[in-house]
User: What shape does this take?
Amino acid sequence: MNLDGLPPVEVMWEGKFVRALRRGKWEYASRARDIGAVVILAEHDGKVILVEQPRVAPDCRCIELPAGLVGDEDPNATVESTALKELEQETGFTAERIEALGQFYSSPGMLSEGFTLVRAHGVRKVGEGGGDENEDIKVHLVPRAEIANFLEQKRAEGLGMDAKLLLLLNF
Assistant: This one.
């Protein structure tokens, strides 16, 4: 489908965090204020750093890669500064360098939300993690070879899986 010739985007409603949009016959959702996101691939001592936290939308705890919103609190925030801040806040780890791997879309048939996938290099432990006072984050360090079994075990326990975890699975 070519997007040329479609009518302009119409905001149907907007809340504090989400807005519903329409363009022609297509309805979709976006983050309010066009806030972006960063998702972090990080390993420490050969183990992938994953987080587990409650998520309201699917009504369950979910296993995810560490992530955060770029510019939601600081309009001057960058992808790199947000990745470092979120990695430390959520997991207790930091990195010497952040490498941007590209822009991706979470669910392009329904959401305009995209995220920048980054890889953390030189990862080291600097704190406890667990998120801020409004978060309940549990950190998991999982050897690459055990990712599939770990995710299956967590699924059996009733946890939800973020689709971005597919990056870690070898089919």
Remarks:
- Residues 1-34 form one domain.
